[in-house]
Amino acid sequence: MGWLSARATIDRNHMTSSRRLREGFIPLAILESTAAIPLRRQLYNWFLRAIAEGRLRPGQRVPSTRRMARELKVSRITVLWAYEQLTAEGYLQTARGSGAVIARSIPSPVGSDRMRTTGAARPPGRKVQVSRQTAKLLRLGEEQTLPITGAFRNTPALDLFPRRAWSRLVSRRARRSSPRDMGYGDTMGEPVLRAAIAEYLGTVRGGRCDESQVMITAGSQQAVQITLRALLNPGDRVWVEEPGYPGAHRALLMAGCEPVPVPTDAEGLIVERGVQRCGSARASYVTPSHQYPLGMTLSASRRFQLLNWAQRADAWLIEDDYDSEYRFGSKPISSLQGLDSDGRVIYIGTFSKVCFPALRIGYLLLPHSVVAAFRAVREAIDIFPPTLYQQALADFIREGHFARHIRRMAAVYADRRECLISALERHFGRSVAIVSATGGMHLVALLPRGMDDESTAARLRAAGIACSALSACCLERPRQGGLILGYGGVATDQIDEAVRRLARIAQPQGRDPRHVPSRGRGDS
Amino acid sequence: MGWLSARATIDRNHMTSSRRLREGFIPLAILESTAAIPLRRQLYNWFLRAIAEGRLRPGQRVPSTRRMARELKVSRITVLWAYEQLTAEGYLQTARGSGAVIARSIPSPVGSDRMRTTGAARPPGRKVQVSRQTAKLLRLGEEQTLPITGAFRNTPALDLFPRRAWSRLVSRRARRSSPRDMGYGDTMGEPVLRAAIAEYLGTVRGGRCDESQVMITAGSQQAVQITLRALLNPGDRVWVEEPGYPGAHRALLMAGCEPVPVPTDAEGLIVERGVQRCGSARASYVTPSHQYPLGMTLSASRRFQLLNWAQRADAWLIEDDYDSEYRFGSKPISSLQGLDSDGRVIYIGTFSKVCFPALRIGYLLLPHSVVAAFRAVREAIDIFPPTLYQQALADFIREGHFARHIRRMAAVYADRRECLISALERHFGRSVAIVSATGGMHLVALLPRGMDDESTAARLRAAGIACSALSACCLERPRQGGLILGYGGVATDQIDEAVRRLARIAQPQGRDPRHVPSRGRGDS
């Protein structure tokens, strides 16, 4: 086989063959003339790998360019290029008169006396060490992969977003962008967007702020992450609502914090239970406007209990206001931040629900006292957010599209919610109980006690119906399982059919036979 | 003063006045008719704040809507709206026949017997606790705020970026975006961009990969951060080059890791010195193609020493390949990742230098064995990167703009570098020594021993000349200070003048008077 196989198709078996090498010989340099990579570069790459894998050893002679070209059936120019590059980078050295050898300065790879596998795969038996936090996240299980749209993924009505107006604004900003818009931006985010948000929060949400307190983030998830990094230490305990938002659980684990589940009731998080469980927690993560996933509003008295606790315990309150824009039949309610006279509330908002998730824009509204800390964390994490989308979003808000879209969507979601509730009643009868607030874009259907929601949700996902289990929001075993059904992205005329399919798959068998069409009747 | 001052201009002194309240009275409700916020909302907000600050107490009577409207000189509808909203949210309660009172279920704020200040500022004397990592970052000092463009900020030539082609691609993608492009995207990034990057790396950089190993990040800073989170624990020690990249120092501090400075020489990081200092480090962060800031290339033998060390110590190698695309007079050299047959190299690339920073797109090339771990971390950190820019960048690469831009810029930067070197020689003579590699878009001018580079850089920045001090890249005191001068963004015809100004400000006084034009001669 000598110097072989030029222009042969690639043969991975040959590449990984484990024959021992004789000094002065290179058994295979397989070049592929059809590949995107030039032959000279393929030859160069082959040498690097052969050295890395111990197939070529320091001091070993390599054939002359002339012989190499002949054996590989390639032009000598090709071989010369590769040899020159290898020499320039220090992999080959040319001793006067005696031809080139693999550089003697290169140490033999560890374990090079045994032939090693090619490829970046770890050798069998090596245990890959990931961080402790990551190991915990991996034990949580992978985030379920859900279809991007359709019943009952918890997304907004993406097809009703004013795409034309939006793309016009994006194009305009892209067209007009100057070198200044392309360089390093403000760590806190584009001033024009921060001003628009400060104005919006002050007007609509009773927030108290100026733009110097607003930091733009990559959605609410990054906002939570930055908050934990800035204010909490690994090992700190943090109240979370039970059930609560799994994204917050993940963020807490990632930051090395310990989530403390605090029970909720119709008024939201039960503050005194939190105090009983862990009065010395360093923070509480809450969704006061629209509890995730159950949808209730944190009551006025609980708000003040929470603020009082935070003040006494010197703790932080992380207010995640992820979808408060949509409330049917009532005005947007005030934020916890608006009641905070002590600089303890970190307020988080996002455009993922009111605009669309792929925008990746959320924001933090910070007490003045911690702005510098958050800025320092942001510098270390990702420096600043991308510019163009921020500018386009500022235009979208300032030119009135945003307010118009919210108004329009509130009516759409109220319809979809009504429609989903009647379909659930029609197809499930009394076998599910509906927990639904007067806002948002999802509701929870509680399953009969004893019925496992996670396996039900898995069965539904396998059938192409996106939904998640209430248990996935719980750190403790819930008394009753449920399905979280997003209706934001499902048109009213699709809801009935989707619920019919849902019922067929999820219906506890034999419980309500009227609503369980048998399989095999052709309606698959 | 009773119920007063409606439609008066806002008067913060009054708002924060600390008079004690009598039961049944609300001293001031200052509404501003000219504000963007409707009067009814202003009144509602005023109530919330008064409750939060203890100026209105649980059980306290509030005036009738009629009286309130009269005293405030506003319509009764305005007051009714506010009272209804406050009642709906649980802040007011109406006892039959006896008018409205502040809800008795609301607990008094902590310390409500003393009047508290308004505003979200912390009360005087409260020490704000930030996390330990953040406190360390704050001690590093704020990232210097540099002008976005101009001499000698280390940015690419933003004015030479093909903005028209780029904005065309962005607009096209924005126009054609479907609901699918607006929903939740792949945690690893858009497949179309990952495929384009995998192809590019395989062809040009000798990387070995397929797209399943590529994760899109928000620039290289986030790539480093995700890597540290996924693989290392707080307290782990990590080799860094000395001098090295300050962004990496920040990322390590943020992750709670301890950077171990390892000296460098003309061949890059001195591996045996690393072993002496801390052979049991868990990782090494390196810039093998073009050391930051000094510009040398990690030699072939050091590469293998490093790989061997990593294998013996079971450590990770974090290869930051931030600007290897620009090498003048030689081909792009192979990456460390291309030599790794053991799955230990985490390769980081970025488009901040080859395209522009405001894009916020970088990437990780991962061993297969850790893809799941990185994915889990990303879910917890910010879920996925924004979609549109990824798609536009994929088009930019696939349609040949990227390769063309790199070719064009390499020539431009080579020119600018030559020009900067001659200007430095002209204006500084021998008082600075130039450390310059054959690539990149910055160089280092070493100052005479004993001259303080940080105060010099600060003086320059005060004069509007962006540059950073070599000391800012050092964890230990460097033997010699220097200035890091970016030339990527400075047109050749501006370089001479910029260096002349630089010399006038930075020149060690009295050392080389020929090059120090006296001040006061009108050339300010």
Tag the structure with descriptive keywords.
Aspartate Aminotransferase, domain 2, homodimer, 3 domains, disordered N terminus, Aspartate Aminotransferase, domain 1, 14 strands, eight-stranded mixed sheet, 17 helices, Arc Repressor Mutant, subunit A, 524 residues, four-stranded antiparallel sheet, disordered C terminus, alpha/beta, elongated
- Indicate how many domains the architecture of chain A comprises: 3
Helix proportion of chain A = 25-40%
Let me know the largest β-sheet of chain A.
8 strands, mixed
> Beta-sheet strand percentage of chain A?
5-15%
Low-confidence stretches of chain A: 1-24, 113-122, 510-524
Q: Mean pLDDT of chain A, nearest integer?
A: 84
| CATH architecture tag of the largest domain in chain A | 3-Layer(aba) Sandwich
Strand neighbour order, sheet with most strands of chain A: 3-10-9-8-7-4-5-6
Fill in the CATH topology of the largest domain in chain A.
Answer: Aspartate Aminotransferase, domain 2
Structural class given helices, strands, pairing of chain A? alpha/beta
**How many angstroms separate the termini of chain A?**
59 Å
Instruction: Choose one word for the global shape of chain A.
Output: elongated
CATH superfamily of the largest domain in chain A: Type I PLP-dependent aspartate aminotransferase-like (Major domain)
CATH class of the largest domain in chain A: Alpha Beta
Number of helices of chain A: 17
Radius of gyration of chain A: 30 Å
Assembly category: homodimer
Total strand segments of chain A: 14
